[in-house]
């Protein structure tokens, strides 16, 4: 087994582990993917967020969603729009050196 294969296998095992510990593991997945066009979507979001609030792996779930670029659904207690705002805010707060990585340096 190569180092890459071993690392990928460990990542999959970790992924399975945190999902097994998630408070939503027995909930209907549709609850976490509300349809914006349906009037009951607001109720779905509230219910999903209540489940997330008591979840022991909420931070891990949110981190996974951000790292893997999940664009839909409620992950780690945040909606798509909330995750988008979090990404935008964190990119503004990152030091300029990391924001400009890969770009040529210019003197101010």
**SS class:** mainly alpha
- Please report the number of helical segments: 5
Tell me the number of strands.
0
Q: What is the approximate shape?
A: globular
How much is the radius of gyration in Å? Answer: 18 Å
Separation, N- and C-terminal Cα atoms: 49 Å
Which range does the strand content fall in? Answer: under 5%
Order of helices and strands, N to C? HHHHH
What about the largest sheet? none
Q: Average pLDDT across residues?
A: 80
- pLDDT below 50 for ≥5 consecutive residues: which ranges? none
Helix content, binned percent: 55-70%
Describe the structure.
The chain is an all-alpha fold. The chain has a domain at 29-91. The protein has five helices and no strands. It has helices spanning 3-21, 41-53, 58-68, 80-93, 96-99. The model has no long low-confidence stretch (mean pLDDT 80).
Write the layout of secondary structure elements.
Elements: H1 3-21, H2 41-53, H3 58-68, H4 80-93, H5 96-99
């Amino acid at each position: 087994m190569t180092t890459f294969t071993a690392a990928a296998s460990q990542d999959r095992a970790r992924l399975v582990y945190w999902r097994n510990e998630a408070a939503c593991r027995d909930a209907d997945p549709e609850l976490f993917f509300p349809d914006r066009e349906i009037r009951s979507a607001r109720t779905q979001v509230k219910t999903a967020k209540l489940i997330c609030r008591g979840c022991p792996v909420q931070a891990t779930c949110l981190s996974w969603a951000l790292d893997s670029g999940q664009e839909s659904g409620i992950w780690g207690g945040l909606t798509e729009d909330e995750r988008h705002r979090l990404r935008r805010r964190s990119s503004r707060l990152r030091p300029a050196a990391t924001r400009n990585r890969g770009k040529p340096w210019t003197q101010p």
